[in-house]
Design brief:
It comes from Dactylosporangium salmoneum. The protein is α+β, with helices and mostly antiparallel strands. The protein has two domains: 240 residues, Periplasmic binding protein-like II (D-Maltodextrin-Binding Protein, domain 2, 3-Layer(aba) Sandwich), CATH 3.40.190; 230 residues, Dipeptide-binding Protein, domain 3. The protein is built from 16 helices and 20 strands. Strand 4 and strand 5 form a beta hairpin. It is globular and about 65 Å long.
Length: 526
């Protein structure tokens, strides 16, 4: 597997990006997981470590799961309820930042709980909303009804960890495996996975585990990687690009050549590419609105490779989700080159009101050639309205940790989002609930990059989560999407598509909607 940068986090409780989540499934099983099949079934969950997708009671406030027989760790010891409970508990520790918010958001009685490493783990009681009925039965007590909690525990955040194997911060370098593979070697550029002899296919209906060995190698030179995969010489016959589309200069060759097109792995999913606008650094609404109006989406997408990169976006919830509401507050669908005249007018209004817009801004991006090229189109967009944009290239391996610190000094931030499951509850709360913005000085786990903390939005999020009728909840998420658009803290650019190149010997590739990538669990060699 080629990736543009080595995954920053392997610890399941610290996994933040789609690539990390995809890779995590090689070694970390969860109570439930998504099917590894192309098409609509990929959005469905099944029992993974658990016998089924969960049994709710008390109006979806209590959820019970039972562990399968013969699920084991890489040393042969059985996986128990205590391991699941401990995995969730360690996500509350202050030792490291946790990106996924769901444990802290959904579980009851979490106020004041600081994880297992302090205070004797709550005086030996641990987190009382995760209960071990016995060694194989786990009960979660929630602070509100959550109808899709079975999807929530599919997140790596809820993966078990055996306390005796927990190396705390160092667990990020080599997590203990209960999946079909275990980590053999970690270098600056590679992760090497080999078989875990204690994984039993009879307990796992999802992971195919075809290859004997999987090597994940970082290489940010996209044109060279694409070229090597097209020619497919040597090891590249057995290689696939996991997280980057075909380089723009090769797109037409791949699309128009039947053999290359058949070999590529392509599809659309519910992901979105967007730019976040830091509302603390740009507090004036008209200034943020001007940045949205001035953005040239056509030039950006053309530089990315055209329509194969994605469809133009006007919302944060993608059309593939039932919670999608179709709106276009900034009239960008009819003005793909932007409306710089409207932007200048808004900037004049701000100036006349004594709140002039800053003439120079900083855009944070992962420092990779293909992203730099796309960022250049954004620089040109803002030159039209008299704003100088400085590009701040950040090491791709640590990029999301850097911008995940709310104290970062970037005005605009390159980002993308793939819903953790197919509902607005996996888009709006993690990206826009201001109550989740960390206050710790060195935090790296913020995902509300625009730093929106609006009481009205926060209350509406709580109301939507509490709505038990799915169709009503979908409507509430769509309305919230529009309300957030009025705050002008994000610029939706495209609903993403994938076009990944594979070597001639690769089989089983399809784009999984949870990752927007080829599903690692399904791939093999001819």
């Amino acid at each position: 597997m080629v990736v543009s940068a080595k995954p920053a986090h392997l610890d399941p409780q610290r996994v933040a990006t789609a690539t990390e989540a995809n890779v995590s499934r090689l070694v970390s099983r969860t109570l439930t997981t998504f099917r590894s099949e192309p098409g609509p079934p990929a959005s469905e969950i099944v029992g993974d470590l658990a016998t089924d997708a969960g049994r709710p009671s008390e109006g979806n406030r209590v959820w019970d799961f039972q562990l399968k027989d013969d699920v084991r760790w890489e040393d042969g010891t059985p996986i128990t309820c205590a391991d699941v409970k401990y995995g969730v508990e360690r996500s509350f520790s202050g030792l490291f930042s946790v990106a996924q918010p769901y444990a802290k958001t959904y579980l009851a009685d979490t106020d004041g709980y600081a994880g297992p490493f302090v205070g004797g783990n709550n005086g030996g009681k641990g987190l009382q909303s995760v209960q071990c009925v016995d060694t194989k039965n786990i009960r979660f007590v929630l602070n509100q009804p959550i109808g899709d909690f079975g999807y929530t525990v599919a997140m790596s955040l809820f993966a078990p960890v055996p306390a005796k194997q927990d190396t705390k911060n160092d667990y990020d370098k080599k997590p203990f495996s209960n999946g079909p593979y275990k980590l053999q070697e970690v270098t600056d550029q590679q992760l090497v996975y080999v078989r875990n002899s204690y994984w039993d296919a009879k307990t796992d209906t999802v992971r195919k585990a075809y290859p004997e060995k999987i090597v994940i190698e970082a290489n940010g030179d996209l044109p060279t990687v694409t070229s090597n995969l097209i020619t497919s010489d040597g090891d590249f016959a057995d290689t696939i690009d996991l997280d980057k589309n075909v380089a723009p200069n090769f797109v037409q060759q791949v699309v128009n050549d039947p053999d290359l097109s058949a070999r590529s792995v392509q599809g659309s999913y519910g992901g979105i590419r967007y730019i976040a606008i830091n509302s603390r650094r740009i507090p004036t609404l008209q200034c943020r609105q001007a940045l949205i109006y001035a953005f040239d989406k056509r030039k950006f997408r053309a530089a990315a490779g055209g329509s194969i990169y994605g469809d133009y976006a006007t919302t944060m919830i993608a059309p593939q989700l039932k919670a999608h509401k179709n709106f276009d507050l900034y009239d960008s669908a009819n003005n793909l080159e932007g409306k710089p005249d409207v932007a200048i007018k808004l900037m004049d209004e701000a100036k006349n009101a004594g709140k002039p817009c800053p003439p120079t801004l900083t855009l944070a991006i992962p420092d990779q050639k293909d992203i730099r090229r796309l960022a250049t189109t954004i620089v040109e967009s803002y030159q039209q309205i008299g704003i100088q944009l400085k590009i701040n290239g950040i090491d791709p391996e640590t990029y999301f940790d850097v911008i995940g610190n709310p104290a970062n000094t970037n005005d605009l931030l390159w980002s993308g989002w793939i819903p953790d499951w197919a509902n607005g509850s996996a888009v709006i709360p993690p990206l826009f609930d201001g109550r989740l913005i960390p206050t710790k000085a060195n935090a790296t786990n913020n995902q509300d990059y625009g730093l929106l903390d609006d009481p009205e939005v926060n209350d509406a999020i709580s109301a939507a989560l509490a709505e038990s009728v799915p169709d009503r909840q979908y409507r509430l998420w769509g309305e919230l999407d529009q309300k957030i658009a009025e705050k002008a803290v994000v610029i939706p650019i495209v609903y993403m598509k994938s076009l990944r190149m594979a070597g001639t010997n690769i089989r089983g590739g399809f784009i999984h909607p949870q990752f927007g990538q080829p599903d690692l669990c399904a791939l093999g060699l001819a």
